[in-house]
Amino acid sequence: MNRRSFLRRTALLLAAQIAANRDFAAYAQTPPDAGDGSAFSREWLKEEARRLSAAEYRPPAAIPRQLVELPPERYREIRFRPDHALWHDQDLAFQLRFFHVGRRFAQPVAIHQVSDGRSQPVRFSGEMFDYGQNRFEPPLADIPGFAGFRIHYRTDFERDMAAFLGASYFRAVGWQMQYGISARGLGIDTVFPGREEFPLFTAFWIEKPAPEQADLTVHALLNSPSVTGAYRFIIHPGRTTVMDVEATLFPRKKVRQLGLAPLTSMYHHGENDRRAADDFRPEVHDSDGLSLVRGNGERLWRPLANPAGFRVTTFLDENPRAFGLLQRDRNFRNYQDDRIYYDRRPNLWVEPQGQWGVGAVGLVEIPTDNEDFDNIVAFWSPAESPEPGQELSLAYRLSWGSEVPDSQSPVGRVVATRLGRGLHRQKDNNGLQFVVDFAGGPLDPLAKDAEVEPVITASRGRIEGASAYLVGEIAAWRATFDLRPDGGDPVELRCYLRLKTGALTETWTYLWAPAR
Questions:
Q1: Structure pTM?
Q2: CATH number, position 499
Q3: Residue 20: its pLDDT value, please?
């Protein structure tokens, strides 16, 4: 399972923390006590996070230098032995396999099994792993944990359906068993380049499921210089994998920008951004847009882009209903990648539980020339972050797969965004044509001669030649218009389709900026 290169940023943080001591050392941060038969509960974990927030932050321990400096190909040779999986010899719906520390994954994570309310540590043993051609001198011993773990479900014990690995990152798959987008426990100062803080899941407690139990509960302790937290994930495998998440956060200090339910994805190029002309694949991305359902019920769609520079967009809201990074285009012909199948990448949909108050959905787009770099981040940022001594509790549901709740939208959805030479640009090189396709919902039964009209606004410049019509070959309604920019500043665009009776579609939003 390949981790995206966004973890390089995490690696830089961890490298700075372990640089002072490259030799093996005991934990610098005292590990939690809920192990070796101790009682465990969610309330205990909250109190542990609260206690930790009042103490000075200490970075994680170093691991042996020879593991940090392993070449990539040698680290990949280290493989977990399936017959050592947790619950391998028991008739349960789940099994757990573990990741070895090394390379970028330099933080040992404590993992515990919880049974009948009592916690027992899962202890590292070299016998759990096949080291391939690797030979270590001195031999590895007493490593206090793992890099993370993967979850296997009874429908296919050979392939994992979720994994927790690196900082507070985790991810899952739907029925197509294809990884792509990731989530994080928490984002801190994500909108400030070079200043972002990466909280760490430092310990996990996994509740042993009962026979025939079809969901798995995972608890996690989060720690960082600014915030501690107690998390619970109830994981429901299925055609769409669902995670019910509860988190309680305790600030150590005031955070400038808090990112809740953060999502991390990749966009290199696509139908609206064709600068990668030397790639045989028409599109390369894990997600093609940000979808939002605002507190007032308005639905927005923002196509992603690979921008010329670091770019942050905020969508102000109160009590958002949902948001997510989606891969709506699921047609193989539009990707032509027969190796890693971008058309199968899962959507990730966030549904807040309860009232989240005033804040904004943030979208960060980072320029990249490498498809292995996750350059897209989306999150909810509350208008006011809690102060030290306060706590913030929240709950939300994550849905992973091709058939997330957004698929049941009651209005027409954007299915494609294209732009190129406009009519005016052909004459004076100062026009840009946009083509936006909508489909589904109330659009499907409309006759070709229905009086559908596009409603288009621009923050600056002039809109000309707007029209909307049915394209029978793709069973979609197409809105087209020309933008005549006024100067070289970016332009914020909005478009939706309506009949006289009201709106038919979600609102397409787009930030156009001059070429690089």
A1: 0.91
A2: 2.60.40.10
A3: 27
